[in-house]
Amino acid sequence: MDSFELNKIAGAVLGALTVTLTLNAVAGLVFGQHEPEKPGYEVAALDESGGGDAGGGAAAAAPIEARLAKADPAKGEAAAKKCGACHSFEKGGAAKAGPNLYGIVGLKHAHMEGFGYSAAMKATTDKTWDFANLDHWIENPKGYISGTSMAFAGIKNPEERANLLAYLNKNSDSPQPLPAAPAEGEKPAAAGGEKGAAAPAAGGGDFKALVAAADVKKGEAVAKKCGACHSFDKGGPAKAGPNLYGIVGLKHAHMEGFGYSAAMKATSDKVWDVDNLGHWLENPKAYVPGTSMAFAGIKSLEERAALIAYLNKNSDAPVDLGAAGGGDAKPADAKPADPKPSEPAPAAPAPDAAKPAEGGDTPAAPAEPAPAPQEGAAPGQPGATPPAEQPK
Ligand code: HEC
Ligand code: HEC
């Protein structure tokens, strides 16, 4: 196009901005200035993509362990009123639209005999409800089990979920011990501390540490599982999937001209980092419901860590796994992850500055606050359920 056309476009953009600013100013005068209740947070969640994404959604939240340590079961009991239309909570209570939830923490998925669970939920009966997966589930049921019949949008407020979990845990014959809160790195920024999200959640740091310590060679071997669909060399072609050279630090749906699914494209404001890659590779369909990547996921935490260590190294600008955590991470076991003198490229910052969603998705949620050996290493994972279970 010629420069005249460019000028016209620039003019149009400026015009639109001016109108927006003016409207904002007027709205400000009329309605008073409001802080958005949750700056950036909701934007980061994949709400439009049909079911959303727990990984991104939880991005700004402190790890569940830390939130539970401060949780208030009395407030949680109040929050549980949101569930009361469909669930009873007392011991031996009847099923309503949903199953009874007495003592749910520590019970198996689809625990209530005779209740008409969805096929998607029944496919996960090898898993046990624990704090981490309940947190994920309550935030976004369809993001956790696409195809669930629980018609509930989810509770986006991380503190509210923690309170609710504290209540659910107490409402039991055998309450579970609360998982230990991360000793350090967790800022007591608490209340609505989205800004504090600039400092990554400590749970994320744990996985990062695993990746930092992982065996890159092993990861390269694991990457053979991806080779049918992905090339890894610089400038390599797309196959069934996009080229993955330098993927850590690139945007979602980064490869120009590749035919991504609508679901993946809807997340193109997010940057791939160690934590969300961990989540994605564990269960692609849970991370991006509606993705076209037909891959069940890698259930072994060690394999994922090694694979991501390899993906990170296979790059012009590997992310510094020791320090990319934003200062909380100790350089303690700082291995020379990056042999070159080149600057470590922190996973995300600049690109996101474009949108209002400050701190949206960078230090992604602790994909797995991984307290105990996670249940669900078995193949009956949600992501492994037939495609018929897609949310839309
Ligand atoms: C509109 C009705 C509805 C609401 C509201 C609702 N649920 Fe559910 N819930 C269901 C249904 C239906 C199922 C079964 C889902 C399936 O089989 O896929 C379910 C399943 C569950 C399960 C799994 C139980 C098991 O046996 O594995 C948990 C846990 C749960 N709900 C918690 C909650 C909580 C906590 C809330 C409130 C924050 C809530 N639900 C709100 C309908 C609801
Ligand atoms: C059966 C083919 C297939 C296999 C096997 C597969 N992928 Fe994919 N992958 C795809 C497709 C297709 C997409 C695009 C998904 C979409 O648009 O929803 C994709 C997308 C991705 C993306 C996002 C890239 C971007 O530009 O945002 C990453 C990262 C990724 N895959 C990693 C892997 C890794 C690592 C493995 C091996 C553990 C793997 N994939 C195995 C087909 C595959």
UniProtKB/TrEMBL annotation:
<dbReference type="GO" id="GO:0046872">
    <property type="term" value="F:metal ion binding"/>
</dbReference>
<keyword id="KW-0479">Metal-binding</keyword>
<dbReference type="GO" id="GO:0020037">
    <property type="term" value="F:heme binding"/>
</dbReference>
<dbReference type="InterPro" id="IPR036909">
    <property type="entry name" value="Cyt_c-like_dom_sf"/>
</dbReference>
<dbReference type="Pfam" id="PF00034">
    <property type="entry name" value="Cytochrom_C"/>
</dbReference>
<feature type="domain" description="Cytochrome c">
    <location>
        <begin position="214"/>
        <end position="315"/>
    </location>
</feature>
<feature type="domain" description="Cytochrome c">
    <location>
        <begin position="71"/>
        <end position="172"/>
    </location>
</feature>
<feature type="region of interest" description="Disordered">
    <location>
        <begin position="322"/>
        <end position="392"/>
    </location>
</feature>
<keyword id="KW-0408">Iron</keyword>
<keyword id="KW-0349">Heme</keyword>
<dbReference type="GO" id="GO:0009055">
    <property type="term" value="F:electron transfer activity"/>
</dbReference>
<keyword id="KW-0813">Transport</keyword>
<feature type="compositionally biased region" description="Low complexity">
    <location>
        <begin position="350"/>
        <end position="365"/>
    </location>
</feature>
<feature type="compositionally biased region" description="Low complexity">
    <location>
        <begin position="188"/>
        <end position="198"/>
    </location>
</feature>
<feature type="compositionally biased region" description="Low complexity">
    <location>
        <begin position="373"/>
        <end position="383"/>
    </location>
</feature>
<feature type="compositionally biased region" description="Basic and acidic residues">
    <location>
        <begin position="330"/>
        <end position="341"/>
    </location>
</feature>
<dbReference type="InterPro" id="IPR009056">
    <property type="entry name" value="Cyt_c-like_dom"/>
</dbReference>
<keyword id="KW-0249">Electron transport</keyword>
<protein>
    <submittedName>
        <fullName>Cytochrome c</fullName>
    </submittedName>
</protein>
<feature type="region of interest" description="Disordered">
    <location>
        <begin position="174"/>
        <end position="198"/>
    </location>
</feature>
<dbReference type="InterPro" id="IPR002327">
    <property type="entry name" value="Cyt_c_1A/1B"/>
</dbReference>
